[in-house]
Specification:
ADP-ribosylglycohydrolase fold; 260 residues; 63% helix
Amino acid sequence: MIGSIAGDIIGSVYEFHQIKSKQFTLFDPRCMFTDDSVMTVAIAAAILTGRPYLDTVRELGRGYPDAGYGARFGKWLAGEDQRPYGSWGNGSAMRASPVGFAFDTVDDVLKEAARTAVISHDHPEGVKGAQAVALAVFLARTTKDREAVRVEVTQRFGYDVSRTVDSIRPSYRFDESCQGTVPEAIVAFLDSVSYEDAIRNAVSLGGDSDTVACIAGGIAEAFYGPVPAPISKKVRECLTKDLWATTEAFYHRYMHRAAA
């Protein structure tokens, strides 16, 4: 999960200032955590405590009203109406990585990922995006086989992850949908040689950089093991104390699985 948050922080500078290069300062002085990190921590907190996803997401999210939520999600978060609003946006996918670390079977991962999505993003594409990310994390940590990730994501969800970062980059543009974000983030991992390389791949695509890097970062952490210590240290420095406390608690309970 630290890998997801690091991806968000690193990519935050480029969300609306896309670049098409892997050559950039990993932690720009302007880097900050965004809604991707807050929502990832919220899902982790719900898993740790057993509280409903809906209650935890709304409570923690309201504690960070300026984290950069999309307009519809921000309205839902602040409003009294708790019903989902049919979103297919990538907000369901960006927060799903803790599920892939915490649950032990494919069926449980898919079920729990859907539960995290439908509280707000109950469109089939929103659910599918969350499930694909959680399953990719689960398979990356349990099989250590990127081909298994590629095959399962393709067969179960119909995403085209046969492409390369270099083939996607020239024409890829900002896209907030699950269907336009999740496959590209998975390719950023599949086409990598290390955790940092996966993040650089994701940012270099030039899309919704913080979210693409958040998704790719979670999968890469599951595959390569704990993120390098300097990156983890920077995450701690960027997060608030309460966000880091939950991140650290989740890490200590579940991260040994990625290192196994």
